[in-house]
Amino acid sequence: MASKKSSVKTSTGSTQASNCIMRWVTRLSIIGLLVALGSYLDSVRERFYVFDPKSLHELSQAAIAAHGENMPGIIDHIVTNLTATYPSTQIAINPDQKEWMFNNAGGAMGAMYIIHASITEYLIIFGTPLGTEGHSGIHTADDYFNILVGEQWAFQPGGLELERYPAGSVHLMPRGVVKQYKMHKGCFALEYARGWIPPMLPFGFADTLTSTLDFPTFYRTARITGREMIRNLLIGKI
Ligand SMILES: *[C@@H]1O[C@H](CO)[C@@H](O)[C@H](O)[C@H]1NC(C)=O
Protein backbone atom coordinates (compact mmCIF):
# COMPACT_ATOMS: atom_id res chain seq x y z
CA MET A 1 0.00 0.00 0.00
CA ALA A 2 2.70 2.38 1.09
CA SER A 3 4.93 1.52 -1.91
CA LYS A 4 2.04 1.98 -4.39
CA LYS A 5 1.28 5.41 -2.98
CA SER A 6 4.90 6.52 -3.30
CA SER A 7 5.15 5.32 -6.93
CA VAL A 8 2.03 7.37 -7.83
CA LYS A 9 3.60 10.33 -6.15
CA THR A 10 6.84 9.89 -8.14
CA SER A 11 5.08 9.74 -11.51
CA THR A 12 3.06 12.90 -10.69
CA GLY A 13 6.32 14.54 -9.63
CA SER A 14 8.06 13.72 -12.88
CA THR A 15 5.05 14.92 -14.93
CA GLN A 16 5.20 18.21 -13.03
CA ALA A 17 8.93 18.46 -13.64
CA SER A 18 8.55 17.88 -17.36
CA ASN A 19 5.67 20.42 -17.51
CA CYS A 20 7.91 22.90 -15.78
CA ILE A 21 10.75 22.26 -18.24
CA MET A 22 8.33 22.66 -21.16
CA ARG A 23 7.14 25.99 -19.79
CA TRP A 24 10.72 27.23 -19.53
CA VAL A 25 11.56 25.98 -23.03
CA THR A 26 8.52 27.88 -24.33
CA ARG A 27 9.45 31.04 -22.44
CA LEU A 28 13.07 30.94 -23.57
CA SER A 29 11.99 30.34 -27.18
CA ILE A 30 9.68 33.37 -27.02
CA ILE A 31 12.46 35.50 -25.53
CA GLY A 32 14.85 34.19 -28.22
CA LEU A 33 12.36 35.09 -30.97
CA LEU A 34 11.83 38.57 -29.53
CA VAL A 35 15.59 39.17 -29.30
CA ALA A 36 16.01 37.99 -32.90
CA LEU A 37 13.12 40.19 -34.06
CA GLY A 38 14.52 43.15 -32.10
CA SER A 39 18.01 42.82 -33.55
CA TYR A 40 16.54 42.32 -37.04
CA LEU A 41 14.43 45.50 -36.72
CA ASP A 42 17.43 47.36 -35.35
CA SER A 43 19.51 46.30 -38.37
CA VAL A 44 16.90 47.58 -40.85
CA ARG A 45 15.81 50.69 -38.92
CA GLU A 46 17.29 53.03 -41.55
CA ARG A 47 14.58 51.90 -44.00
CA PHE A 48 11.97 53.66 -41.88
CA TYR A 49 13.68 57.06 -41.96
CA VAL A 50 12.19 59.79 -44.16
CA PHE A 51 14.14 62.90 -43.15
CA ASP A 52 17.90 63.13 -43.53
CA PRO A 53 20.39 65.06 -41.39
CA LYS A 54 22.14 66.76 -44.32
CA SER A 55 19.05 68.34 -45.87
CA LEU A 56 17.72 69.38 -42.44
CA HIS A 57 21.04 71.13 -41.81
CA GLU A 58 20.85 72.88 -45.21
CA LEU A 59 17.27 73.85 -44.50
CA SER A 60 18.21 75.26 -41.08
CA GLN A 61 21.01 77.32 -42.62
CA ALA A 62 18.73 78.61 -45.38
CA ALA A 63 16.09 79.59 -42.79
CA ILE A 64 18.72 81.46 -40.74
CA ALA A 65 20.07 83.20 -43.88
CA ALA A 66 16.54 84.32 -44.79
CA HIS A 67 15.28 85.34 -41.34
CA GLY A 68 18.26 86.09 -39.10
CA GLU A 69 17.17 85.86 -35.47
CA ASN A 70 13.47 86.12 -36.24
CA MET A 71 12.32 82.77 -34.77
CA PRO A 72 8.71 82.86 -36.04
CA GLY A 73 10.11 83.48 -39.55
CA ILE A 74 12.64 80.63 -39.20
CA ILE A 75 10.02 78.18 -37.95
CA ASP A 76 7.57 79.09 -40.69
CA HIS A 77 10.33 78.73 -43.30
CA ILE A 78 11.22 75.23 -42.02
CA VAL A 79 7.66 73.92 -41.68
CA THR A 80 6.54 75.37 -45.04
CA ASN A 81 9.54 73.82 -46.76
CA LEU A 82 9.05 70.37 -45.15
CA THR A 83 5.34 70.37 -45.96
CA ALA A 84 6.13 71.20 -49.61
CA THR A 85 9.00 68.68 -49.81
CA TYR A 86 7.41 65.56 -48.31
CA PRO A 87 4.02 64.26 -49.50
CA SER A 88 1.45 63.81 -46.74
CA THR A 89 1.07 60.18 -47.84
CA GLN A 90 4.72 59.56 -46.88
CA ILE A 91 5.04 61.39 -43.57
CA ALA A 92 2.72 63.36 -41.27
CA ILE A 93 3.89 66.85 -40.28
CA ASN A 94 2.16 68.89 -37.58
CA PRO A 95 1.46 72.28 -39.21
CA ASP A 96 0.22 74.00 -36.02
CA GLN A 97 3.11 76.36 -35.22
CA LYS A 98 1.29 77.57 -32.10
CA GLU A 99 1.27 74.14 -30.45
CA TRP A 100 4.03 74.74 -27.88
CA MET A 101 4.49 73.00 -24.53
CA PHE A 102 7.00 73.05 -21.71
CA ASN A 103 9.61 70.32 -21.65
CA ASN A 104 11.53 69.44 -18.48
CA ALA A 105 14.17 66.74 -18.84
CA GLY A 106 17.52 66.00 -17.26
CA GLY A 107 17.21 69.13 -15.13
CA ALA A 108 16.92 71.42 -18.18
CA MET A 109 13.79 73.37 -19.01
CA GLY A 110 12.55 74.80 -22.27
CA ALA A 111 9.59 74.67 -24.59
CA MET A 112 9.02 72.57 -27.68
CA TYR A 113 6.85 72.40 -30.75
CA ILE A 114 6.56 68.88 -32.18
CA ILE A 115 6.84 69.10 -35.98
CA HIS A 116 6.97 65.32 -36.41
CA ALA A 117 6.88 62.24 -34.17
CA SER A 118 6.87 58.60 -35.22
CA ILE A 119 8.38 55.34 -33.91
CA THR A 120 11.79 55.93 -35.52
CA GLU A 121 12.07 59.72 -35.93
CA TYR A 122 11.12 62.96 -34.30
CA LEU A 123 11.64 66.55 -35.30
CA ILE A 124 11.00 69.34 -32.83
CA ILE A 125 11.82 72.97 -32.23
CA PHE A 126 13.25 73.16 -28.71
CA GLY A 127 14.65 76.06 -26.75
CA THR A 128 14.18 78.91 -24.35
CA PRO A 129 14.92 82.64 -24.46
CA LEU A 130 16.21 82.38 -20.86
CA GLY A 131 18.94 79.78 -21.20
CA THR A 132 19.02 76.40 -19.43
CA GLU A 133 21.42 73.64 -18.52
CA GLY A 134 21.22 69.93 -17.79
CA HIS A 135 21.93 66.27 -18.57
CA SER A 136 21.40 65.18 -22.18
CA GLY A 137 19.92 61.81 -21.23
CA ILE A 138 21.07 58.41 -22.56
CA HIS A 139 19.22 57.87 -25.80
CA THR A 140 18.40 55.04 -28.19
CA ALA A 141 18.53 57.42 -31.16
CA ASP A 142 21.11 59.63 -32.88
CA ASP A 143 20.32 63.22 -32.09
CA TYR A 144 21.10 66.11 -34.48
CA PHE A 145 20.79 69.45 -32.74
CA ASN A 146 20.63 72.17 -35.46
CA ILE A 147 21.20 75.46 -33.63
CA LEU A 148 18.91 78.18 -35.03
CA VAL A 149 19.53 81.15 -32.74
CA GLY A 150 21.88 81.57 -29.79
CA GLU A 151 24.51 79.07 -28.76
CA GLN A 152 24.63 75.64 -27.19
CA TRP A 153 27.58 74.53 -25.12
CA ALA A 154 28.41 70.94 -24.18
CA PHE A 155 30.88 68.96 -22.18
CA GLN A 156 31.86 65.35 -21.52
CA PRO A 157 33.92 64.12 -18.55
CA GLY A 158 37.57 64.50 -19.48
CA GLY A 159 36.80 67.28 -21.96
CA LEU A 160 37.90 70.11 -19.62
CA GLU A 161 37.00 72.72 -22.26
CA LEU A 162 33.53 73.47 -23.52
CA GLU A 163 32.32 72.42 -26.97
CA ARG A 164 30.67 75.43 -28.61
CA TYR A 165 27.81 75.15 -31.12
CA PRO A 166 26.76 78.49 -32.63
CA ALA A 167 23.71 79.21 -34.80
CA GLY A 168 23.93 77.34 -38.13
CA SER A 169 26.01 74.47 -36.70
CA VAL A 170 24.92 70.93 -35.81
CA HIS A 171 25.63 69.25 -32.51
CA LEU A 172 25.47 65.51 -33.20
CA MET A 173 24.89 63.30 -30.18
CA PRO A 174 25.27 59.68 -31.39
CA ARG A 175 23.11 57.00 -29.77
CA GLY A 176 24.40 56.21 -26.27
CA VAL A 177 26.59 59.33 -25.90
CA VAL A 178 25.94 61.38 -22.75
CA LYS A 179 26.80 65.04 -22.15
CA GLN A 180 26.15 67.97 -19.94
CA TYR A 181 24.76 70.77 -22.10
CA LYS A 182 23.88 74.39 -21.69
CA MET A 183 21.83 76.68 -23.85
CA HIS A 184 23.74 79.78 -22.95
CA LYS A 185 21.47 82.83 -22.53
CA GLY A 186 18.73 82.16 -25.09
CA CYS A 187 18.87 79.40 -27.69
CA PHE A 188 16.49 77.61 -30.03
CA ALA A 189 17.28 74.51 -32.07
CA LEU A 190 15.73 72.20 -34.61
CA GLU A 191 16.25 68.82 -32.98
CA TYR A 192 16.13 65.76 -35.21
CA ALA A 193 16.31 62.31 -33.60
CA ARG A 194 16.45 59.06 -35.58
CA GLY A 195 16.49 55.63 -33.95
CA TRP A 196 14.01 54.09 -31.53
CA ILE A 197 11.89 56.92 -30.16
CA PRO A 198 9.53 55.24 -27.61
CA PRO A 199 12.38 54.28 -25.21
CA MET A 200 13.33 58.00 -25.10
CA LEU A 201 9.95 59.07 -23.80
CA PRO A 202 10.47 58.10 -20.10
CA PHE A 203 13.43 60.53 -19.93
CA GLY A 204 11.17 63.20 -21.40
CA PHE A 205 8.57 62.62 -18.70
CA ALA A 206 10.64 61.79 -15.60
CA ASP A 207 11.24 65.38 -14.44
CA THR A 208 7.56 66.19 -14.81
CA LEU A 209 6.49 63.13 -12.80
CA THR A 210 9.09 63.44 -10.03
CA SER A 211 9.67 67.17 -9.79
CA THR A 212 7.49 69.74 -11.54
CA LEU A 213 4.21 67.76 -11.16
CA ASP A 214 2.95 69.88 -14.07
CA PHE A 215 0.27 67.37 -15.07
CA PRO A 216 -1.43 69.60 -17.66
CA THR A 217 1.92 69.70 -19.52
CA PHE A 218 2.32 65.95 -19.08
CA TYR A 219 -1.13 65.35 -20.53
CA ARG A 220 -0.59 67.79 -23.41
CA THR A 221 2.79 66.24 -24.29
CA ALA A 222 1.50 62.65 -24.13
CA ARG A 223 -1.62 63.52 -26.12
CA ILE A 224 0.19 65.37 -28.91
CA THR A 225 3.07 62.86 -29.15
CA GLY A 226 0.60 59.96 -29.26
CA ARG A 227 -1.60 61.74 -31.80
CA GLU A 228 1.36 62.39 -34.13
CA MET A 229 2.70 58.82 -33.81
CA ILE A 230 -0.73 57.40 -34.62
CA ARG A 231 -1.21 59.81 -37.57
CA ASN A 232 2.06 58.44 -38.95
CA LEU A 233 1.28 54.79 -38.27
CA LEU A 234 -2.03 55.23 -40.13
CA ILE A 235 -0.13 56.14 -43.31
CA GLY A 236 2.38 53.34 -42.74
CA LYS A 237 5.21 55.56 -41.43
CA ILE A 238 6.94 53.59 -38.70
C1 LIG B 1 13.65 73.45 -49.07
O1 LIG B 1 14.90 73.93 -48.60
C2 LIG B 1 16.02 73.43 -49.29
C3 LIG B 1 17.24 73.96 -48.58
O2 LIG B 1 17.21 75.35 -48.55
C4 LIG B 1 15.95 73.83 -50.76
O3 LIG B 1 17.05 73.31 -51.46
C5 LIG B 1 14.65 73.33 -51.36
O4 LIG B 1 14.52 73.79 -52.69
C6 LIG B 1 13.47 73.81 -50.52
N1 LIG B 1 12.26 73.16 -51.04
C7 LIG B 1 11.11 73.81 -51.18
C8 LIG B 1 9.99 72.99 -51.73
O5 LIG B 1 10.95 74.99 -50.90
TrEMBL record:
Keywords: Endoplasmic reticulum, Membrane, Receptor, Transmembrane, Transmembrane helix. It is an enzyme of class 5 (isomerase). Its EC number is 5.-.-.-. InterPro entries: ERG2_sigma1_rcpt-like. GO terms for biological process: ergosterol biosynthetic process. Pathway: Steroid metabolism; ergosterol biosynthesis. The chain crosses the membrane at residues 21-41. It comes from the Eukaryota. Coiled coil: none annotated. It is found in: Endoplasmic reticulum membrane. GO terms for cellular component: endoplasmic reticulum membrane. Belongs to the ERG2 family. PANTHER family: SIGMA 1-TYPE OPIOID RECEPTOR-RELATED, SIGMA NON-OPIOID INTRACELLULAR RECEPTOR 1. This is C-8 sterol isomerase.
